[in-house]
Specification:
Layout lengths: L36 H15 L7 E5 L3 H4 L9 E4 L5 H11 L4 E7 H5 L3 H9 L4 E7 L2 E2 L5 E2 L22 H8 L3 E6 L3 H13 L3 E7 L15 H7 E3 L2 E5 L14 E5 L5 E5 L10 H13 L3 E8 L6 H5 L11 H4 L3 H10 L2
Parallel strand pairs: 1-2, 1-3, 3-4, 4-8, 7-8, 9-13
Antiparallel strand pairs: 5-6, 7-13, 10-12, 11-12
Helix pairs in contact: 1-7, 6-9
Amino acid sequence: MSYQLPKFRHPELPVNDLGYTKADYEGAISTLCAGCGHDSISGAIVRACHELSIEPHKIAKLSGIGCSSKAPTYFLGNSHGFNSVHGRMPSVVTGAALANRDLLYMGVSGDGDTASIGMGQFAHVARRNLNMVYIVMNNGCYGLTKGQDSATADRGSASKKGDPNIYSAIDLCGTALQMGATFVARSFSGDKEQLVPLIKAAISHRGFALIDVVSPCVTFNNNAKSTKSYEFVREHSEATGTIDFVPMHKEITTEYQPGHSHEVTLHNGSSIRLYKVDESLNPFDRRSAINALEEHRCSGNILTGLIYMNMDSRDLHEVLETSQRPLNALDESDLCPGNKMLLNINASLR
């Protein structure tokens, strides 16, 4: 059996502003289970990057271990990539981002990789506000090791083997809010019309941007008693509102009802427009976002959409006042300013 994508493409595929087709953002053919929600997320990432006209070599995709961490193989094949050890992806992203701030960093992780072995690293990369997009492919189970419950499995939810989970779930959106994340969203792998604009907004946000995507495991956790199944999510999801992402060079033509829309200009000049937002949620207030998550959890529903965004976010580079030039672009004179500078530094410490 061959796992190579055919090289032939329709000659009239639409191109973006850089002249690339969507095929230029694809990766290898997926070997995940047929119907896996992770493949839908990969497709949403491909679409978002293509429509934003991002040069593939300007993207670095990083992952840990798990089904989700295999997914970067299946998108952005012409981008930089690094598959790290279990739960340690945030450390690798931090080092790479501090060395070269000119790349777009996209971390892809799973609920086990993030909420269990990687929880400590997740908490710290969120509070440091590293400039990255952090996508969690959340299926509530360990798909590579036969479907055991993960830390995000809801209490009482049952996987394919039938035993209900006896532990309370970790809400990654709530945790990110508590840790100081400046962009928090949740979506569903089966809703690309919501997910694609959220990915675009996260890419354009300056700071740590989390998107927790409920992504059903069709092999182990897509049964009637699971709260991470396709059927359950479709019946119990409640959206914060509809989101439109408008690039800087595009004219806004959508009409909105007066008093029911918010427009936010991002750091790169692009805009996010939210309309028909739930009046109980203010997505620009952290406490309101935390309360909304708790209210929907208590009612048995899953809150999706843009949950929180800090419009005045300062990322880690701004906080540390790092070099504007990537470290690999600095020469010896920059890195070794001479003995006189060393003496001045030592004198300032006395």
